[in-house]
Request: fold
Amino acid sequence: MNWAELTKEQKQMAVLAGVIGITVLVALYLFVLKPVLANADAAREQLVRLRADIAKADSVLKKEHRFVRETAELKDRIDHATREYIPPYGNSLAWATERLYAVARAVGVNIESLSGNSAVWGGSSDPAQKGRRAFVSFSAQVALQCSYAELQGFLQALEQDNPLACATGVTLEGREQDPVKHHVNLAVEWPSWLRSPLPPAAPAAPNKAVPAPSGGKPGDRRKAA
Amino acid sequence: MNVRVNLLQEAELRHQGIVSYRFVFTLSASAAALAVVLLLGWGVLRYYSRGQELKTAKKTWTETEPRYLKCLALQEAHDRQQALADELKGWQNSRLALSAVLAEIQRLVALRSIQFIRLSVSSQIEVIMPPPSPARKTEARPAGAKGDAEELAPAAAPAAAPVVPGTPARRYRIMIDGRASGEQAYQEVVDLGNDLRTAPALAALFESVRLQGLRQAMDVKDRPDERLFSIECVLFPRKIE
Reply:
């Protein structure tokens, strides 16, 4: 085939065929290959994300049994602490009164008066941390008349009775009339639920100062509070 | 004389190379067309292959997702319970066994001619920041705690782990006001301070033991040696975590 021998019409046809061929190629690229590749890329990205999600889910699912076991253990521990060592929600003072009088009776110490109040505790300069707290500090102020040794015994019994009971303040002053018996002001704190741990919460009773009992039982005092 | 007669017309001349231009042109065109077809085929194949993989992955995810969500809820419940347990543990860690401290103080006082007038224990919550240098170790202590009083001696470092930045901690302070008698009353007070600092049961607890005041007891004129004293013991902060 010699270009020079071609007629004008043949040359025009050849050029036209070339142009059409190139146009077809461009059109194929633009309207077929490019969208197909783009879709394939999108599918690949989706696949990568999905595979990452599946891998993440698998790693979490591997811990499922551990979560179940540990959650049950933790719940048991917290339930036990709630039953035994934490003042009940809305009834803290009555509970504290009962516990403190029981300890005082056990060690032979006379409680003169008892009052209580609650406050958010721990990291007061960190509002975020404070917001995460589930407990407030319930504090009972106890006035005693006892010797130094009796105070020790009272504190020791209190510490053994409740691992969460925390003596946060003690003031011990001697008395002129009886150098053995001292005036003792004691502050004991417990963690107390900030919100009710049970969904239907009873209305919180206001904490008031409890006067010294006159021979009554702790249970009676709790009813009064 | 030689005469070269070219009997072929220019258009009739044939290419002298191994392959003709026509063959090169046809081959190139075919190769280009084949490349386009292969490219298209590869694209379509890849598309369908990815589509199939995606379909399989979606199916797997559909099966996994409910269990995963359930497990996430379980994990959240676990974390909530763990946070509660940690909070209670922090509370327990911050507790001071005060009975043991009082017993030890009583034991030390019984060795000397010292009588307590007043003993007070107080505690406060503070946030412990990391000390930038050993010289500023007591930065977290509230202002005015140190005062100008004489420091008897620094106590031993605590065995506990270093305090994490921004950790809330409970710090106890014990104030002992008492009366010392005898010719060496002042020495009794200084010795009591040293005992408080070095006693095995207290050394790990007390950050500092300072004599806050020592003066003659004015209320007993017949005993000029009698001294009134104040000793402040600041305990290491106990982390609430």
Residues 123-128, 200-225 of chain A have pLDDT under 50 and may be disordered.
